[in-house]
Each structure stands twice: as structure tokens, then as C-alpha cells.
């Protein structure tokens, strides 16, 4: 959920034709290919094409799935953890919660009740959830709209247009968060002005603190890849708005991030992006446990998909939440909201190209 540092000026992306290799890309999944007459295992495997389209920090995609009979088990893949920026696996579990929401939504869309059990084995904290088929059901209209927004959602790090979001959407987003047991604080450009300015300053300070840490820079640099590298994860240069033809300089970007403290320039750019965003939003939870983090992940994806229904994009400003001293300052600004978990900006922008995703075969522990 972290954005790559916008080290280089934005360049309008091209519309390069996709190659036939992308037939294996989960972004190209088509609901018409659902195996209606297939086994439950085949159906569950198909649903995973939507689960893997969830957002994650540095695009690490830290989830694994295990199919046991007619059940899917969700595990945290700690081999993809970010020990510097996310030492307690808080954002890792939030990412898995977003994947869980997509999975459950896909089941509902195709007419199945999902039966969910979270943290079914307390002695195994990486075993996050067990999901199984329930009875047949008729999906609600909103579930169909949300489901069809899954392949349309990706993190958009481009500058947002000077266009306000409708008030009706704000109410819908607040409902989406609360329906998943999360609190949503809307920080508009007008009200409360002082709080918004304080949040923007904390974003900039978070950039400077993180980039001053060589270990943070090394961790970030490890996840910067060229889109043509064959890797199905990590952060590409084109995701930052660079022309795809320049994506091959990703190794140079990685070297620069690892070698130099770019916090000052990054903080200036993020300050501008945040100041021009029509809306900043803070997702918070009552407590700060793994159960809360998983629920926040579901709330996050619900919110992001609802926004995409109205062609609204989002990107993340989690720097002040990832830094303990700044997180406490965010919490002090909104004390009635519990523990801050995710900070977003929302608005309208040009369509970006999504970052790569691991195909289902790469995230399955086994097929039962």
C-alpha cells in the first residue's frame, strides 16, 4: 500500500498493446469463464483470480491460499514481510484482509453464501481465515457492482484533477467502512482546515524520517522492478506515471533509492499531491489487534471498490502511520476514532496501468 517514491517527473504513459502472455494475468479475468458446471474446488480456484487483485504494501502480495476439500484457507505469507516498514505485520494482515474481501465478494456474486471463520487456530497466527461454501443465495445489486469493480481497481499515484467528489459518495464510503467495523474520517479541503494541514505536514515528515533510514531505503529498493523483468510483484516505474518505454530504468531507480536520502524531494511532492487531493481519508479501528487489521483490510477494499463504481481513484499516504511517533500524533488529531490504520487520498485522475499480479498457481499451497 505504499507508493513508490516519485523520484522522476511524471510523463504521460503510453497505450502499448498487451502481449499474449497477459492471458495468464489475473487482471484479465473474465466472469464469463466461471466454471458453472465445475467442481467446488474449480469454482474456488476461479474466485482466487479476484482475491489476488487486492492492494498490498510495495505490491508484495503477502497471501497464500490452501484448498482443502471444498474450503479455502488464507495464510499470511511472512516470507514477503517488510520488517522495517511493517515490523508487526500490521499492513501485511491488512493486505490479506483486502484479498479476503475480494474472495468473499466473488462467492456472493456467483450466488453462494460464504461461511467465514477468522483465526481458526490461535496457535498458528499466520492462519488468518477459513472460507467455505454456504447455501445458494441471490446476490444483492450492490454486490454485483462491487464485484465488477475489482478488475478496475488499482492504486493511482498520478496527480488528481481539481474536481470535487459528490457528497452522496462520501456517505456511501462511510457506510462501506462502518459495515466492516471500521471508522472513516473524511478530511476535506475545507473542513477541518487545521486538521488537514496537520495531516499533510505529518505525511511530509514521514517521508523525511523514512528516507533518512538506510534500512528502509534498502527494503524499498528490493521491491522496485521493471515491468518487463518477468516478476509478478513489486513496484514498476510505469505505475508512477512514467512512459512504459522508460520502465527499463527501474534498476537505476532502485539504485538511487538505496543510495541516496531523497526524503526532502519526496516530501515536497507528496505535500503537493495531498494538498491538491479533493479528499483525504483516515481508516481507523477500535482496537489494534490482528483481528482488527484483518477487518480493516476488508473495510479498505470495500471502500476502494465502492469508489471505483463512481470512477474515483485512490492512493496511500501511510508514512505517518508506519512511524510510531507520528502515528500517535495522527491519533491525537482524531482521538474519537481509535487506532489509525490507513491514510488515503481520493479523487479523479487519468487511468493508470496496474502493477503486476502473481497468478493463482503461485499463491496456492496445494490443490485439494
UniProtKB/TrEMBL annotation:
Source organism of the structure: Hyella patelloides LEGE 07179
**InterPro entries the record matches:** Nitroreductase-like, Nitroreductase/BluB
Enumerate the NCBIfam families for this protein: Rv3131_FMN_oxido (NF047509)
Q: Name one GO molecular function term.
A: oxidoreductase activity
- Put simply, this protein is called Nitroreductase
From which domain of life does this come? Bacteria
Amino acid at each position: 500500500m505504499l507508493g513508490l517514491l516519485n523520484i522522476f517527473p511524471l510523463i504521460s504513459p503510453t497505450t502499448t498493446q498487451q502481449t499474449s502472455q497477459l492471458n495468464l494475468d489475473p487482471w484479465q479475468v473474465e466472469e464469463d469463464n466461471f466454471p458453472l458446471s465445475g467442481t467446488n474446488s474449480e469454482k474456488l480456484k476461479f474466485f482466487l483470480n479476484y482475491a489476488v487483485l487486492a492492494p498490498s504494501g510495495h505490491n508484495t502480495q503477502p497471501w497464500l491460499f490452501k484448498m482443502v476439500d471444498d474450503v479455502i484457507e488464507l495464510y499470511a505469507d511472512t516470507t514477503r514481510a517488510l520488517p522495517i516498514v511493517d515490523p508487526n505485520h500490521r499492513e501485511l494482515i491488512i493486505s490479506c484482509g483486502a484479498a479476503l474481501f475480494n474472495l468473499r465478494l466473488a462467492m456472493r456474486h456467483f450466488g453462494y453464501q460464504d461461511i467465514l471463520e477468522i483465526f481458526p487456530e490461535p496457535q498458528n497466527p499466520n492462519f488468518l481465515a477459513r472460507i467455505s461454501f454456504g447455501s445458494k443465495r441471490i446476490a444483492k445489486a450492490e454486490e454485483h457492482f462491487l464485484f465488477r469493480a475489482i478488475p478496475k481497481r488499482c492504486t493511482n499515484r498520478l496527480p488528481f484533477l481539481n474536481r470535487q467528489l459528490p457528497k452522496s459518495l462520501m456517505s456511501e464510503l462511510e457506510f462501506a467502512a462502518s459495515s466492516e467495523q471500521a471508522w472513516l474520517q473524511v478530511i476535506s479541503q475545507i473542513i477541518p482546515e487545521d486538521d488537514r494541514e496537520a495531516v499533510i505536514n505529518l505525511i511530509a515528515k514521514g517521508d523525511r524520517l523514512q528516507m533518512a533510514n538506510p534500512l528502509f531505503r534498502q527494503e524499498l529498493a528490493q521491491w522496485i522492478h521493471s515491468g518487463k523483468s518477468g516478476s509478478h510483484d513489486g513496484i514498476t516505474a510505469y505505475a508512477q506515471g512514467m512512459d512504459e518505454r522508460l520502465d527499463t530504468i527501474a534498476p537505476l531507480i532502485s539504485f538511487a533509492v538505496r543510495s541516496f536520502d531523497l526524503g526532502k524531494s519526496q516530501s515536497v511532492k507528496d505535500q503537493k499531491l495531498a494538498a491538491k487531493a479533493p479528499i483525504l481519508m483516515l481508516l481507523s479501528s477500535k482496537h489494534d489487534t490482528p483481528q482488527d487489521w484483518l477487518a480493516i483490510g476488508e473495510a479498505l477494499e470495500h471502500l476502494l471498490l465502492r469508489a471505483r463504481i463512481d470512477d474515483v481513484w485512490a492512493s496511500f499516504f501511510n508514512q505517518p502511520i508506519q512511524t510510531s511517533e507520528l502515528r500517535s500524533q495522527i491519533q491525537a488529531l482524531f482521538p474519537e476514532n481509535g487506532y489509525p490504520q490507513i491514510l488515503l487520498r481520493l479523487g479523479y485522475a487519468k487511468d493508470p496501468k496496474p502493477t503486476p499480479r502473481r497468478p493463482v498457481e503461485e499463491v496456492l499451497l496445494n490443490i485439494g
